[in-house]
Design brief:
This protein is α+β, with helices and mostly antiparallel strands. The protein folds into five domains: 38 residues, no CATH class; 127 residues, Porin chaperone SurA, peptide-binding domain (Triger factor/SurA peptide-binding fold, Orthogonal Bundle); 132 residues, Chitinase A, domain 3; 116 residues, Chitinase A, domain 3, CATH 3.10.50; 91 residues, Chitinase A, domain 3, CATH 3.10.50.40. 49% of the residues lie in helices and 16% in strands. The protein is built from 24 helices and 14 strands. The strands form four sheets. It has a four-stranded antiparallel beta sheet. It has a four-stranded antiparallel beta sheet with strand order 9-4-11-10. It is extended.
Length: 599
């Protein structure tokens, strides 16, 4: 095109025409196009809360981070249409605006959190502790990098989070749910019902003749989808976690013994003693009491003389470091069982101490904990190695290698599942045992296809899964001959279920007309059973969930019915009693309920 323009403008006529055309273009841009340059100026803010602006780029970053966090919780990446369907995009926007409002409020009030406090919170976070139980800088750096944070950004986020918690805690302090609401929830959660019931089984359905070919064929045609062969997929995958790396990591005895020495105190169980203590105002009073004990009085007798309850003198079964007073600790752990100490000048007065039981401490030998120590060390080393292996796998995958090829080059083991359906079962109906837990690998595989370069799946906080779909076996309709036994079993169950439902309906009708459940059960050769203290959300071994739900759909004295756990049982019941425990606002249950409503 440029060559054509140059040729057209090689003479005076062409130059004149090109000048006119370019002039018209410049005028057009001046009238319509140039304004577009300025219309978007200053419009990069998505929302403004006070003086706090939420920029489009800032929201995009937060949105991406939150989706990654949600993806790790689900064990898979959520597609955009599912994100919109669940309203996650709107929830994140509302949350970002709410956080901006809290940040603005903190700024106006001049609230701050010291660097020392933020450092303390981060260093005490158990997620950042290594095998020795102490803060591990390398682990900290690796985890926040996986979450998409730099150290500076993470610290800033933790500081803002601490300020938001302070404000929210102040705002919500003192908020109390109404008594009416608590009464309604108490009734719903704690209402208890008692029923008499009878359980109908296959015997009450009577004799069922084998189905004819026409009946079997008709049932199969009506339930063909139920017997359809599912789609199967062949999948190859690689799992990379610290535990996987630890399997082929060798830890020497020298390294394990060093950690053993460092953690010796934590591995040991200290000696514990059951200790009793009486405090006296003076040495003379304590000595006099000691002489009475020597003359035959018991420690409890002395306590009663001083009007002390058992709880006043019982220190419990404790270890030496748990005793606040060093003098008392020294004396208590020098006594034999049932001995009483001489008067002790302690921090809180003069004391007599008695030891009634001694639980010896235990210091495990290196050999007894060596295997676990080596495993812990290997896993800890594996955490550092995971990032390195992850980068190598990504490089190989980026170069076009399949999962199996990339794993072989990196030194990892790939697993191949020959065939699995959406439920994780093989063609023989048995669960596929090789599927990794903690990640929705099967769902991701069925959302992909052969030859597709799939995203890496996050496994927990420090693990990854790569996979390829190697083959697809489409779903198909089975023939009656393939599943004849299953079809016949399904037909029989439906026959039993239908008969039991009809019989149960007749029994309920008789009960509503004044019949007795004992008489109805006797005519069927069944025994009436009872169940009490049934709650709405309770699951019992004797009553399936469907029966419990049905029990709470009728009033006291009424009858009802519900299917059992399988097609070959049916329950008929009458509600004989309904109890609603009184509302106890001081109970632990109500306190937890109130706290839940406040949150």
């Amino acid at each position: 095109m440029l060559r054509g323009i140059r040729n057209a403008s090689s003479n005076w006529l062409g130059k004149t025409l090109m000048t006119i055309v370019m002039g018209l273009l410049i005028v057009a841009f001046g009238i319509w196009g140039i304004a577009d340059i300025f219309q978007g100026f200053g419009q990069s803010a998505l929302a403004t809360v006070g003086n706090t602006e939420i920029s489009t780029e800032q929201f995009r970053q937060i949105y991406t981070d939150r989706l990654q966090q949600i993806g790790r919780q689900f064990g898979r990446t959520l597609p955009p249409d599912q994100v919109r369907a669940l309203g996650i995009d709107r929830q994140i926007l509302q949350q970002v605006i709410a956080e901006a409002a809290l940040d603005e409020d903190a700024r106006r009030k001049g609230l701050e959190v010291s660097d020392k406090e933020i450092s303390r919170q981060i260093m005490s976070d158990p997620n950042f502790k290594g095998a020795n139980g102490a803060f591990d800088p390398a682990r900290f750096a690796g985890l926040i990098r996986q979450l998409g944070y730099t150290e500076q950004r993470y610290v800033t986020e933790q500081r803002n989070l601490a300020l938001r918690r302070q404000i929210v805690g102040t705002v919500t302090a003192g908020v109390e749910p109404s008594t009416k609401l608590l009464e309604a929830l108490n009734r719903f959660q704690n209402e208890q019902r008692t029923i008499d019931y009878v359980k109908l089984g296959a015997a009450q359905a009577g004799s069922i003749d084998p189905p004819t070919e026409a009946q079997l064929s008709g049932y199969f045609d009506a339930h063909k989808v139920q017997f359809r062969a599912p789609e199967y997929r062949k999948i190859a995958f690689v799992v990379l976690t610290p535990e996987e790396v630890a399997k082929w990591t060798t830890v020497s005895d020298d390294d394990a013994k060093k950690v053993y020495e460092q953690r010796k105190d934590k591995l040991s169980t200290p000696e514990r003693r059951k200790i009793w203590q009486i405090i006296f105002p003076s040495v003379a009073d304590a000595q006099a009491a000691r002489e009475k004990i020597a003359s035959g009085a018991s420690f409890d007798d002395i306590a009663k003389e001083r009007n002390l309850a058992t709880s006043d003198i019982d220190l419990g079964t404790i270890s030496r470091p748990e005793i606040v007073d060093p003098a008392v600790a020294e004396a208590a752990f020098s006594l034999k069982t049932d001995d009483v100490s001489q008067p002790i000048q302690g921090k809180f007065g003069v004391a007599l101490v008695k030891v009634s039981k001694i639980e010896p401490g235990n210091q495990p030998t290196y050999d007894s904990v060596a295997t676990k120590l080596k495993h812990d060390i290997a896993v800890d080393r594996g955490r550092a190695e995971v990032n390195n292996l992850h980068n190598k796998m990504e490089d190989e995958r980026g170069g076009g290698a399949s999962v199996v090829e990339a794993a072989k080059k990196v030194g990892l083991s790939a697993v191949t599942i020959e065939a699995t359906d959406r439920s994780g079962r093989a063609p023989d109906g048995k669960p596929v045992t090789e599927i990794p837990q903690g990640v929705d690998l099967i769902a991701q595989a069925f959302a992909s296809d052969v030859g597709v370069d799939n995203d890496t799946l996050q496994l927990g906080n420090n693990g990854f899964v790569w996979f390829d779909v190697l083959g697809v076996t489409p779903s198909r309709d089975r023939t009656l001959a393939e599943v004849k036994d299953k079809v016949e079993a399904g037909w029989r169950k439906d026959q039993i279920s239908g008969r039991l439902m009809t019989k149960a309906t007749d029994i309920v009708r008789n009960l509503e007309q004044g019949g007795k459940i004992a008489e109805e059960s006797s005519s069927l050769g069944l025994k009436v059973e009872s169940a009490s203290a049934i709650k709405r959300d309770a699951t019992t071994g004797e009553l399936p969930a469907a029966v419990v739900a049905a029990v709470f759909r009728v009033v006291k004295g009424a009858a009802g019915q519900a299917p059992g756990a399988d097609n070959d049982e049916w329950f008929v019941f009458r509600v004989t009693d309904v109890k609603v425990p009184p509302l106890d606002l001081a109970s632990d249950e109500m306190k937890k309920l109130r706290e839940g409503i406040q949150r």
